[in-house]
Amino acid sequence: MRYPGRKRRRFAFAALVAGIAASSAYAFTNSNTVPATNSGSGSGAISGYTASNIAYNLNSSNPQSIDSVTFTISPTTTSTVKIQLASGGSWYSCTNTAGSVSCTTTSPQATAAAATQLTVVATQ
After folding, report:
1. Which pTM was predicted?
2. Sequence spans of domains, the chain
3. Is the pLDDT of residue 11 over 90?
């Protein structure tokens, strides 16, 4: 003999278990807070700098070593200037005082034999 109410009870029980599982999964989720930000796209011309009056200052006791490089840069408003004396070589930081740039090349020590090019990178 079959009991018609038994199927209904099983269905109700299954629905109850599914409801509990669904609400439990929701209870364990968390939300992220993302602050408002700005984004945009644009373009502008990149103009270069001109380096002139370049001087390689040799070490007084060992003239094979280059102790510094000085030059004039235009435009004069640069916040960062760096130089490289050989492709793939060390980058040296420079100071810019109203367009008069000085770069110490002693750490690591630059040498005249290894200096094959002067690369200047400058930004505003």
Report:
1. 0.65
2. 1-30, 50-123
3. no
